[in-house]
Fold each of these.
Amino acid sequence: MSKITFDLDVMRTFVTGIELGSFAKAADRLGRSTSAVSAQLKKLEDQVGSPILRKSGRGMLPTAAGETLLAYSRRLLELNDEAAAAVRGVDLEGWIRLGIPEDFGERILTDVLGRFARAHPRVRIEARIARNATLLDLITSGQLDLALTWNSDITTPHSEHLCDFAMHWIGAAYPQLQASYSGDEPLPLVAFEAPCLMRSCATSALDRANIPWRLSFTSPSLSGIWAAVAAGLGVTVRTAVGLPNHLRIIDNPTLPALPILGLSLHRLEAEPAVAVQRLREIIVEALMGEDMGQQLRAA
């Protein structure tokens, strides 16, 4: 039996179409005609020997075989892109100062920094996890080269909006704690110490809905927030990014709707060094990857 050799360009089209939710958009993104994209997908299905896409409303979703192929395609493309970056940047040297919020700490530090370090071992990265206001202060004062932050009223000269996330009411995953959210008493709220963007969104939404609330727990760290919510001390407002398994998004019609929260990447310089630009590219790729991509599309 002959072995199958997949075409990475075809796999890239497949992955891009799934992540964008449209193969017409994928054609535009990749600079191909829609007929060329259709031919690539047909070639991929012929190689697999079974359908990889199924109709869902006006769009297309992967079949079971397509889901399996999608996971492998992402891994192969990531390795290919990492190899290409390593070859191009074999002599890349320097020092990058990166700032990220706690929500993305685990994802960024393990995935992005690992990929970057393997491709560019001679570039040193100094990573800092901090609150939103602190990160904005550091990038504006020239103490960071890149900073990932939630959108706020504060802007910087060289920033780009990456994507939007839905904010949610989040509570402990235990039914016996749901009585705390019934509305009979002020809603116990777990939040960061002020100033906090999501805390302000939560209290403003509750005030507009005329729902009484009280601060039951404040913390300077996200781990403290998660621990307090898990213990049943109250509810909090965050996005689904990094949500621990022992917590859940609350589906309670008595709680008010929350706004969408944008995510931006700030650069210290308009035209950053090659190493900084490469790290930026990897961060964007990670945010649009499998887990994050699902969250972004849901938002």
Amino acid sequence: MIVLGSTSEVAQAFVEKALQEGEKFGKIYLFTSNKETTERFARHIDVKFLQQSEVIEIDLMKEIDYTTFDHVSSNVLFCAVGYLGDGTEEGLYDNRNTERIININYSKLIPVMNYFAQKFESRRSGTIIGLSSVAGDRGRQSNFIYGSAKAAFTAYLSGLRNYLFEKKVHVLTVKPGFMATKMTEGLPLNPKLTATPKQAAACIYKAFKKQKNVAYVLPVWSIIMMIIRNIPEFIFKKLKL
């Protein structure tokens, strides 16, 4: 398995869920910008599951030398790359914050996704799982920079799914709602609408095995976002969402 964003609690929970379910991986490639943290997780799955892994440093804010991971080959790619950034008014007009949100969630990520998608296509097999967000379903004043990047990522995954279908490669788009992770720590989240990483992993694994196209981690979010998407614009623009 290839894991992009392997410091993500959801990514790590998914790896553990897959191993607990008996999935066999010759090697798990853990791509990360935080080598020290990821190496701890690598040791954990080695001890608990006797799972061999390789930690590979990657920084989306720097130029990437793709030749350093030419050797990486797998039948499953799990992308949990994400950066929420500063969603306040100050953050909105901070161009460095804006560029980082867009670069990490979309513009610098897509070439990496394409690099591996081409490998999957040439092999004519595999599954690509991408964590997008309900924030990408409609732009809302509270997080529309982040939401716009996730909307672009959702559109990318949709097009990739369409393109790779005849090549026998499955693409799964995951749309978590509120998640109890480091990224959302301190935010006032409704517990009834918030999933834990373990809950998310279980949902994603089920969707992976059923070869679903799109999966909301908590089903209630599909209803919530359907309602939000269908609010007329002349009303929606006046709302505080």
